[in-house]
Amino acid sequence: MLTLAFDTATEAATVALLRDGEVLGERRTKAARLLADAEELCAAAGVAPSDLDRLVAGIGPGGYTGLRMGLVTARVLAFSLGLDAAGVSTLDALAAGSPGAEPLVDARRGQVFARGEDGAPRVVAPEGLDVRPGTTYVGDGAVRYRELVEAAGGIVPPDEADLHVPWARHHAALARDFGSAERLEPLYLREPDAERSLREGRLRV
Predict the structure, then answer these.
(1) Angle in degrees, 0-180, between the axes of helices 34-45 and 64-81, rounded to the nearest 10
(2) Tens digits of per-residue pLDDT, 56-103?
(3) For a 10 Å CB count at each end of the chain, is N or C smaller?
(4) Same domain, 8 and 82
(5) pTM, two decimal places
(6) How far is CA 116 from the centre of its chain?
(7) Domain check: are 174 and 82 in the same one?
(8) Containing domain of residue 129, as a range?
(9) Which residues pair with 13 in a beta bridge?
């Protein structure tokens, strides 16, 4: 089973190619380079995009533009290649890369995306995080609010640690319920900046 997995919800976008769970290639990328990097991974592994069996895409939460580009790419690829697809939370993938850790994604606007006690994603102010002393926190949100997390007793790995990257191989490992890519829904958790500006009358069309 040949799987292409990717996540573009954060600036640390990633893409991976796996065969039966074994990573054939993986790299950090940018949303705008996703297709090019995917093709290069396939070429390096000696396979063609038409050989792919399924897709896995990160559904956020994360940045609106990158997240939308990733899901549009997933739908286009799935349609053109006749592939089933599955979506995986970027927060869950981060947590899978560091068992026992809690993921935090920078949501901008002075907020972070985190998981609630029930595991559901939510957006909160950093000051509203229920930091558990001795628990490790990963992701670009943990890096940005390191001082706050550590002051509350949390542990944040060094900024350059790979644990802060939502590696696509973890998305592939967590993926379940494959089906039409049209079912993939992004976890925005709040309205995009442009829509808010339009609603508040600060943007005209």
Answers:
(1) 50
(2) 999 999 999 999 999 999 999 999 999 999 999 999 999 999 999 999
(3) C
(4) yes
(5) 0.91
(6) 17
(7) yes
(8) 92-162
(9) 29
